[in-house]
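Ticket #371: bound-state structure for GN1.
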Amino acid sequence: MSECTRERLEAVAGNFQYEGKVTEISSYGNGHINDTFLLQIETEAGSKKVILQQINRYVFPRPEEVMENIMNVTRYLNQKIRENGGDPLRETLNVIPALDGKAYYVDGEGGFWRSYIYITDAFCYDKVESPRDFYESAYSFGRFQNLLAEYPTETLHETIPGFHDTRARFAAFKRAVEEDVMGRASQVREEIQFVLDHEETANCFARLLDKKEVPLRVTHNDTKLNNIMIDNKTRKGICVIDLDTVMPGLAMNDFGDSIRFGASTGAEDEKDLSKISCDMELFEIYTKGFLEGCGGKLTQREIALLPMGAKTMTYECGMRFLADYLQGDVYFKIHRPEHNLDRCRTQLKLVADMEKKWETMQAIAESFLSF
Ligand code: ADP
Ligand code: GN1
Ligand code: MG
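RESOLUTION: The complex was predicted; output attached.
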């Protein structure tokens, strides 16, 4: 159960407004960033589950700002969901306050904790099991962006500055290679070279933003398949979760991050690279779902740039995994020594595969122009 003892977790749980007795605590989910726990709570009315999370303070140095964003965005979504006749308890995250009424609790060890109502009768995938589910996830992420289209951007904190500034990430990557603090660079020359040879990919969106040719929107910025809950019965995408990085960003990047994870024929950390490629059928299905979810809000230019979003996010993620490997695995959680290197290799293999399939990807995006 991560590094947290049961005593510590029980003490933390005692500081939230849970109206009942905590009877079970277990580690939960496959996120790479936060420590997530599932709690079973017995109340007079029966048993219920809640999510308890310790926010990663290395990744989010200002967690109060993360929570302020989440409270504001979920309040806004709650209203929209009600207006559309939906169920806000299942269709958006709901924060359970601490005993003092705050949206978080800081324990004696400096751990920053928050709690959410558990979304019942729904599940998260780590792998696409049916194209239909992938379509639903695409629709939900597109719709999420659509629902937030008029959200007051200026009120959002940038929880990770330059999160998808791929040009800045390239510069940070070069520094990590030069510093080589773990002495690992010599063993991964080929991967480093691949990243350096793709500087153009790192610069593409930054240049378009400099020239104001693409709009900044309120985006999710972490659109992995396991950040969406699919309803068990209807199999519709019910709720977008993991809202820590909701910030102004590019629609193409939200699209692309989903492709790099969900349209890959293998797991993000697959060691056998012969299993890794970008599935064009899934790419097309996701494009359709995402654009339908966006409800006609994307410009023709953004639609045409969707393949570039896929390539950029895959490349950026590969570069981030490799930088973290070089820096001693300080950012992403790892479960084996070369985990970040394995993850980096799948991403770079995907980039190479997308380059081979570039014309197909562009033809698919173009078939949705005037959508
Ligand atoms: P991370 O930033 O580490 O990815 P997430 O917020 O995505 O953390 O949570 C990790 C996992 O916990 C999710 O992939 C999902 O399986 C589960 N989870 C998170 N919040 C909820 C919730 N409110 N209801 C049900 N499951 C949840
Ligand atoms: C992290 O938090 P999680 O596991 O959903 C990361 C994403 C990466 C992803 C790679 C805040 O996502 O940016 O694309 O891992 N989130 C953060 O799997 O850095
Ligand atoms: Mg997550």
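RESOLUTION NOTES: Residues 63-83 form the longest helix (21 residues).
TICKET STATUS: resolved
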